[in-house]
Amino acid sequence: MSEFAAGKEVLSYCGKCKLPLAHMIVVMKDPKTIGKVTCKTCGATHAYKDPATKAKKVKTTKSKAASKKSVNINDLWAQEIASASGTSQKYTIKTKFAVGDLIDHKKFGPGVVQALVDGKIEVLFQHEVKILVHNL
Ligand SMILES: [Zn+2]
């Protein structure tokens, strides 16, 4: 029996009780779509909310927030290293670098030049961004 009708019982998410609970169908939108339901626990009448859909929505929101949090300097660095072309050059203050150049720094490790600032280079390393002198 998968057919619904007014007066029948259905499991719906209740916005007041914040739980999936037994509800009584009040109105059908069409023979297959439930319109309004009345919560058997709190007595509120509201639009039918599929408990499965509700659970999915919560999950999506959570994973979105998690992925937002994980975008940090380390990930950015990994992306930049992966997309940078050419071979890395050993960093010395005498070498001239350009934006997009790969740098091999003896202390900070591999990095990518992000910008030129007042004749210096802004380099993204795995754990930090450094302003370094170059082209001396
Ligand atoms: Zn309720």
Order of strands, main sheet, comes to 5-6-7-8-9
- Compute the separation of the termini in Å: 82 Å
Report the major sheet: 5 strands, mixed
Number of domains: 2
> Which structural class best describes the helix and strand composition?
alpha+beta
What are the secondary-structure elements, in order, as H or E?
A: EEEEHHEEEEE
Question: What's the average pLDDT?
Answer: 88
As a percent range, the share of helical residues equals: 10-25%
Instruction: State the oligomer.
Output: single chain
Ligand species: zinc ion
Shape descriptor reads rod-shaped
The proportion of strand residues reads 35-45%
The number of E-state strands comes to 9
- Give the low-pLDDT segments: none
Total helices: the number is 2
Radius of gyration from the CA trace?
A: 29 Å
Tell me about this structure.
The protein has 2 domains: 9-69, no CATH class; 73-133, no CATH class. Helix content is 22%, strand content 40%. The protein has helices at residues 51-69, 73-83, and strands spanning 9-14, 19-30, 33-39, 45-47, 89-90, 102-105, 109-117, 120-125, 129-133. A 5-stranded mixed beta sheet has the order 5-6-7-8-9. The chain has a 4-stranded antiparallel beta sheet with strand order 1-2-3-4, with no helix packed on it. Strand 2 and strand 3 form a beta hairpin. The longest helix has 19 residues, at 51-69. It is rod-shaped and about 85 Å long. It starts with 8 loop residues before the first strand and ends with a strand. The protein binds zinc ion (ZN).
Give descriptors for this structure:
136 residues, alpha+beta, 2 domains, 5-stranded mixed beta sheet, 4-stranded antiparallel beta sheet, 2 helices, 9 strands, 22% helix, binds zinc ion
